[in-house]
Amino acid sequence: MASVVQWVQGTRPRTLPNSIAPVIVGAAAAHHIDEFKPLYTALALVVSIALQIGVNYANDYSDGIRGTDDNRVGPFRLTGSGAAEPSSVRLAAFISLGIGALAGIVLVVLSGYWWLLAFGAVCLAGAWFYTGGKRPYGYAGLGEIAVFLFFGPAAVLGTLYVQSGEITGIGIGASIAMGSISAAVLVANNLRDIPTDAVSGKRTMAVVLGDKDTRRLYLALVAVPFLIALGMTVRVPYALLGFLAAPVLLPAVRRVASGRGGRELIPVLQFTGLAMLAWAILVSTGLFLD
């Protein structure tokens, strides 16, 4: 049986900034128009983290039973390593997604925006069918697009809208920034896995683009948040604080730009995720100070 530590590893902690950072920025955007609600933000954070963990377990399960993880270079996998029964990993995914769904329902009831139930259902389906089902979209080169949408506009603007009932320009800019750098995390992951994914039939965007163009895509995506921060200064001068996240990102950029591969790319996920979280906190600080 898998140990507690291995189950925690199965949540892929390095990817959790993807779910935390967008909620922070969305809440800050709500505060910027005097609509910040701490309880709503806390519930949105539970939804986001639970769905992130759920999709990570679901990915572990689906890739594991397909044999995609048999020769994986990246982080520990519960199913692929044989440390846990596939049914147990699937159950963990369902429990995590269920917690996210429950918190989301509470949030909908409190806010009164009942149409968000349909929005939540789409998010749950997106979490499962990324690598689950007969035709997973993550195997068709659509993973990065889905990550951009779910961890960008969906998470940021969802957090903003449920508190304020409106969408702002600041919120839209922040959602594009979060979506781009979140997609960059997946691009880095798939760049590392090009050799094994190509063999196993997992046709990710990285497999389609190839090594060189995937590296270019990563560098373009991580530049977006800083361009957005610069644009935000027209209305929020303190948004320049976002540039303080650049040193956190620099080690990742160097590894990708220098052509490193395999295990040397594993830290790129962590550095990119931390840079995302740093950017979110810094820009949010700027929105609170404005």
Feature tags:
mainly alpha; globular; 13 helices; 290 residues
What does this structure look like?
Helix 8 packs antiparallel against helix 11 (about 210-230) and helix 12 (about 245-255) runs antiparallel to helix 13. The chain has about 290 residues and is mostly helical. The chain is built from 13 helices and no strands. The mean pLDDT is about 90. About 75% of the residues lie in helices and about 0% in strands. The relative contact order is 0.14.
Element layout with pairings:
Blueprint: H1 4-10, H2 17-32, H3 38-66, H4 78-81, H5 86-111, H6 116-128, H7 143-164, H8 169-192, H9 194-200, H10 205-209, H11 211-232, H12 246-257, H13 266-289
Helix pairs in contact: 2-3, 2-7, 2-8, 2-13, 3-5, 3-6, 3-7, 5-6, 7-8, 8-11, 8-13, 11-12, 12-13
- Report the β-strand fraction as a percent range: under 5%
Count of DSSP strands: 0
The average pLDDT is: 91
How many helices? The count is 13
Sheet with most strands:
none
Low-confidence sequence ranges: none
Helix content: over 70%
Oligomer: single chain
Q: In terms of structural class, how would the helical and strand content be classed?
A: mainly alpha
- Over all CA atoms, what is the radius of gyration? 18 Å
What string, H for helix and E for strand, traces the elements in order?
HHHHHHHHHHHHH
In summary, what is this structure?
The chain has helices at residues 4-10, 17-32, 38-66, 78-81, 86-111, 116-128, 143-164, 169-192, 194-200, 205-209, 211-232, 246-257, 266-289. The protein is mainly α.
